[in-house]
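A common beginner's mistake is to predict each chain separately and then try to dock the pieces by hand. The better habit, illustrated here, is to supply every component at once so that their relative placement is modeled jointly.
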Amino acid sequence: MSNILVIDLGLCTGCRNCELACSQKHTSTFNPRRSRIQVLKDESRNVILPLVCLHCEVPLCAGACPTSAIIKDDAGTLVVDTKKCVGCSDCVTACVYGGVVLDPMTQRAIKCDLCSGDPACVKACQYGAITMLPRELRGLRGRYEGTKRVLQSYLLIEEGT
Amino acid sequence: MPFPYKGYAGYYLEVDLTKGNLYKREMEKEWARRYLGGTGIAAQILWERTGPQTEPLSPENVLVAATGPLTGVMFSPSGRMMFASRGPLTGIWAESHVGGFFGPEMKYAGFDVVIIHGRSSKPVYLYLCDGKAELRNASDLWGRETDTTIQMIREEHKDPSIETAVIGPAGENQVLFGCISVDAHRSAGRTGLGAVMGFKNLKGIVASGSFGLEAYNTEAYLKANEQETAKLKDPLWKESIASLKDYGTTGLVTMINEIGRLPTKNHWTGFYEEAEQIGPEAISRGYRIAEEACYGCSIGCKYVYRIKEGRFAIGPVGGPEYETIMAFGSNCLNSNLQSILYLGTRCDRLGMDTISCGKTIGFAMELWEKGILTSKDTGGLDLTWGNVDSMVKLVEMISKKEGIGAILSQGTRLAAEKIGGDAATYAIHSKGLEASGQDPRAHQSVGLTYATNVRGADHLRSLSSLEELGYPDVIIKRFGKDKFKEIMKITSPIHKGEVIKDIEDLYALVDSAVICKYGTMWPPVYYFDTFVNVIPPLTGMAEWGDPRIVREAAERICHLRRAYNHRLGITRKQETLPKRLLSDPMPTGPAKGGFPQLDYMLDEYYKFRGCDTKTGLPKKETLIRLDMGPVAKELEARKMLAPAQSA
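With all components supplied together, the output reads:
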């Protein structure tokens, strides 16, 4: 059973420590632009939205990749084979969830690889907003519940629900 | 030799607004070694480039925006940076610190420090991106409130990651307490640095960057970092941290009122009977909708509020801090919570310091009560205590310098001079800066903090929470068992000179690193050893592993900022308190009858600071010990060094 990251927006304070931890783990630098998880903000609507790969069952990014660089590893996690990636950013366009970005240094696609099962962001989050759960009902439901705050902010669901 | 240290971006930027020239320069090794960053580096720059000949609102004045090595490197908290200049409100050393996300982004954009001088002929803003800098046209942004300005800049660049430090209409109009607003709802509030930007026709500084920051020894730094931030989790601080998380600084309204230190009725007293109505529970119950945090911070004291309906409907937007609630609430005898939140946000959007603004309005209300200001002066505005309608109007008028707002926009000291008569009696300031939300009559050491603070009457350079909240173990560890009893007494002046000197030193490093007062002031977790542990593996400055060097750097920063003020004529005579806080005993509340024994504390402070007790000026040997020979030489030439024969 593969895993997914579940983020509870109700707990997220937008401190972006996850970005720093992720970039530290993957690039040995503190550089949020090279992080695989990135926090989008719209303060006027009280929206703080960490964007990270959802590890889709039918990944649009993989389908869009002309060199088949986005593949599932042995644990069922979608990863980028940087040797194959040519930096065309088709995957970035294809992913409607903002889960893939181009690394500004290498100009190659980067996305969450769940740190091979021990995600740095989960450890770095001081507010317990990020957890890693198996992709089964529990994880998927957690992910849905976690988005309530932003859905309320955009009036897609009513407050109090 | 290239700049050798890690943890820094490695470059600083010189901006000549008059000519429109930008110069990117490698960071100075000595700046980092001697001053670390932030306030220390700013002090060195301003000492060299400004002085008595520099009018605060002139092209010659220099505005420094500075980060420190701990900005943006995953230290909790690491979102802070600072601005400094010769202050327009006070005429002396002025600095203001701010959290959020702008400081780190400045470093990711490739610059540790930005030095701005000159004056642009038309409105511009400074854009920093990936090691490059550019002055861009800000004509469309001029006149806009801060929230609109930020939206427009974000849209112009189509860059959601862009971070901003901008001024609002108040800064543009050179309201002397205009502030610099950082990202959506944080402000470098105090000392009127927004007016400096306004004068220079500089609408803002914005940054966006993809440059990474490296540690000198990543593994060792991460380990030291983890050890330090783990200290925040000690059960000892559980209550403090929980309060900050749940209420932010609004929790202080109740805590401080309980000890009779909540400025009420323009500092007449320190106890507000209706404090509960403007307190943390009322905000939390009615208006708070979310918790927020600055970059990498595990405390998360920021909150978001919204007033859904009614005349004060506003938000979602960042919630006012304790100081704002004090300034527009108890200080003006205003228990209408919605109006306080609203006024705080209006000030944020207009770009004004809520403390100075609220305090100046409280001052005007007292003048009204005393008959010094009448409706002829105010254009018909009724300034009775707690008149919310008038307060709402007055905030707008001050930002536009309309009517009575023009006089009040200069802060209490200058306004009192203009108004004349007895007005100066009710101007509650030190060195021109309106007092913040403490009262020395309830808390002895606050008197010393206010009097000696290099930027004027406020708490952020040396407030001690040790005796206020009672941290016996910390006091014993820092000052020894035999002094513990007296230090714990909030109403005793004994040993407070030593405590405040020590804390001022500590905060000098906090403000240079740059980190936050939460985790250092309250709760008092990080101390000098934090810098000893963290700075060497982060930067590669091995000497910072020596506690003696770290202490010396702290003292050097304090003395350099003091020297800056001495050169402008500040001596012991100016390091004092307004009469009300000095000699009118507290009239009501838990601290009734109290007043600060300032002279006693000052004597002790100067002794520990290495200054002459009579004048407050530094002794030559103190400055020589701190390797500040050139500073001593200049002060000597200006007769601002302690006389050689003095004890």
